[in-house]
Amino acid sequence: MLARKSIIPEEYVLARIAAENLRKPRIRDRPRKARFIAKNGACNLAHKNIREQGRFLQDIFTTLVDLKWRHTLVIFTMSFLCSWLLFAMMWWLVAFAHGDMDPSTENPLNSTKWTPCVTCVRSFTSAFLFSIEVQVTIGFGGRMMTEECPLAITVLILQNIVGLIINAVMLGCIFMKTAQAHRRAETLIFSRQAVIAVRNGKLCFMFRVGDLRKSMIISASVRIQVVRKTTTPEGEVIPIHQVDIPVDNPIESNNIFLVAPLIICHVIDKRSPLYDISASDLALQDLELIVILEGVVETTGITTQARTSYVAEEILWGHRFVPIVTEEEGVYAVDYSKFGNTVKVAAPRCSARELDEKPSILIQTLQKSELSHQNSLRKRNSMRRNNSIRRSNSMRRTNSSLIVPKVQFITPEGSQSASET
Questions:
Q1: Are the beta carbons of 150 and 67 closer than 8 angstroms?
Q2: Measured between alpha carbons, how far is 326 from 321 in angstroms, rounded to an integer?
Q3: Please, which of 22, 295, 330, 336 could form a disulfide with 220 given CB 3.0 to 4.6 Å?
Q4: Where is the Potassium channel inwardly rectifying transmembrane domain (predicted)?
């Protein structure tokens, strides 16, 4: 071992290892940027250090609607229990002040006729049961009001009003939680990826949107915003700078008829923030395109909003969505299994600005794609021709191997007969 180590000097070994490490490319993953809008439409935003918490209690109904179901149910259950216990204490105090708890009033030999405020209320348990019967209007008939105590009548009126308010808030909150607008947005779907391709001689940013329900979204409109971090000439850093970009729609109102999945197109022109971005620059861009679909639900009349976003890694350059709407037996059928499928098409890799300055780039790209398509067709035809020739040659060899030679049979009389099998 000592002799082997002395063959190569140690300094040469260290130099070789350092040279190998320098040759190896060190690939460092770019830190993943946080999305402003998640793919399911949720806002990726955390509110911290809110000092004015009392503003949430000023709008208590919206606060209850925004809470989770378990929290809402716990609050309503505790509201009912607290109201029942509070009024049970009031009924017990009314009975105690009137003397209904005195055992002497229960003696049937007592000559004086005693009329209690509430019949059969002799303890706190009976007062609690009577409070439940009053508020939920059960009325079993064992306990009832009398005309003896005006204070008891006032407590009865007050408990009925409080019970109606709690019931109204509970029913309204449950209805609003079950019919929230974002529930309808669950069936509005967007393509997982967006594409950039040539349409009508212009580079366009496109994505697909669809509605899974038969009930339509009335007056549906689509808006696109680009969110990116920018710095003003004065040195001010804007972490979330929102820029609206136009949507290519022949209708001036920008409304869409979402009866079937549609491909929403944005023409990359001089007004677009994507005007100076090429295919090679797209992966290096720190931008996020937010898509907002708004409309009125046909069945409920509630305005709903569906959102999604596309980052640079989710935009495919030189792709196009495959068609998914076909006519079958007089009915238009939509194949949602191909909703996000794309195919590669010919598209220049330059930016829209370079394409406007040099229109010949598009013509050259289309010519190259046409030549490559023809070459692929020729190769395919030649391969088919070669395969057919090979198949015919193999069939001939097989048939020649199946030919049986003639066999002569000699009869006992000595005559020869030839037969073929």
A1: no
A2: 14
A3: 295
A4: 37-180
For residue 8, how far is the Cα from the chain centroid? 63
Residue 399 token pair: 């048939």
Domain limits, the chain: 66-105+113-178, 182-342
- Pick the closest to residue 339 from 211, 205, 200 (CA basis): 211
CATH number of 182-342: 2.60.40.1400
The pTM score is 0.65
**Whose structure tokens read 């079950």?**
178
CATH number for the region 66-105+113-178 comes to: 1.10.287.70
CB-CB contact of 327 with 333 (8 Å): yes
Q: Quick one: CA torsion of 191, 193, 198, 200, rounded to 10 degrees? A: 20
DSSP state of 118: B
CA distance 257 to 266: 17
H-type helices in 402-415, by residue range? none
Q: What is the mean pLDDT of each run of 10 residues along the chain (421 residues)?
A: 45 49 47 74 76 73 84 91 94 87 60 76 89 85 83 91 91 83 81 90 90 86 86 82 77 74 89 87 85 87 88 90 87 89 88 84 68 64 75 68 51 48 38
- Token reading at 36: 């402003």
State the amino acid at position 63 in one-letter form: T
Between CA 40 and CA 47, with CA 42 as vertex, the angle to 5 degrees is 160
- One-letter amino acid at 79 equals S
Helix, strand, or coil (residue 315): strand
Residues 271 and 205 sit within 8 Å (Cβ to Cβ): no
What is the DSSP code string of 356-391? Answer: HH-THHHHHHHHHHHHHHHHHHHHHHHHHHHHHHHH
**What does the DSSP 8-state code read for residue 53?**
T
The angle at the Cα of 266, spanning 262 to 267, to the nearest 5 degrees, equals 130
The CA-based diameter of the chain, rounded to the nearest angstrom, is 153
